[in-house]
Amino acid sequence: MATQLHELLRSLRVWAPEVTRLPPLDPAAAPADPVALFQEWFAEAVAAGQPEPHTMALATADAEGRPDARIVMLHGADADGWAFASHSVSRKGRQLAERPYAALCFYWPVLGRQVRVRGPVTVAPPAEARADLHARSTGALAAALTGRQSEPLESVEELHRASQAAWDRARREPDAEAPTWTLYRLLPEEVEFFQGDEARRHVRLVYRRSDDGTWVSRLLWP
């Protein structure tokens, strides 16, 4: 099996030209604020047909400093930070309570781009979390109402029963409360934009927040 995996890996290409376009990144033309560049890149990823461009890797650490990562959905990105949501009692919720610092990573292979964000995480007011949840789909509300995220599960059948009950309630009560549902905001200290290049001369532009709150950008070796 290891040999088969190795052969399969060797057969794969990164940024195959028939499915990937590698646009240039001109650091001299980049905006002073990384949020503006992120919003521009996000719109370009959507226009290029990138599947699920709003998904991102969220990395946290537990009380002992052991790292953890998973894919979550972006809920917004503006001057208040990059927003995502989860149950406060989930594994990521507990880790963020213990260590309120995280990193995000977006990967848009259709354009050969990555965006990496890291910084402290704060909890939004409950009213904002409720508004965010109720602005989403019935399925999102049903998932939030199902709850018990990261807890041990006895069987798939148990999940189906709880999920169906949550779906029924979400349809019946579109304003139903999910008490542990929490909206988090990561206020970046550093944002890196990575633009792939077919000759491996990748452009990495990193923004770092200075002590006075302004952004300073510079290039990094790939």
What is the secondary structure topology, with strand pairs?
Blueprint: H1 2-11, H2 34-47, E1 55-61, E2 67-73, E3 76-78, E4 81-87, H3 91-98, E5 101-108, E6 113-123, H4 126-134, H5 138-146, H6 156-172, E7 181-186, E8 190-195, E9 203-209, E10 215-220
Helix pairs in contact: 5-6
Provide key terms for this protein.
globular, 222 residues, alpha+beta, single chain, 10 strands
Describe the structure.
This protein is of the alpha+beta class and 222 residues long. It contains 6 helices and 10 strands, in the order H-H-E-E-E-E-H-E-E-H-H-H-E-E-E-E. Strands 1, 2, 3, 4, 5, 6, 7, 8, 9 and 10 form a 10-stranded antiparallel beta sheet that branches. A hairpin with a 5-residue loop joins strand 1 and strand 2. Helix 5 packs across helix 6. The longest helix has 17 residues. The radius of gyration is 20 Å and the shape is globular. The mean pLDDT is 96.
Question: Brief description of this entry?
Answer:
With 222 residues, this protein is of the alpha+beta class. It has helices spanning 2-11, 34-47, 91-98, 126-134, 138-146, 156-172, and strands spanning 55-61, 67-73, 76-78, 81-87, 101-108, 113-123, 181-186, 190-195, 203-209, 215-220. The chain is 30% helix and 31% strand.
| Secondary structural class | alpha+beta
Task: Tell me the Rg in angstroms.
Answer: 20 Å
Per the principal axes of the C-alpha atoms, what is the gross shape? globular
Number of strands: 10
Give the proportion of residues in helices.
25-40%
Give the biggest sheet. Answer: 10 strands, antiparallel
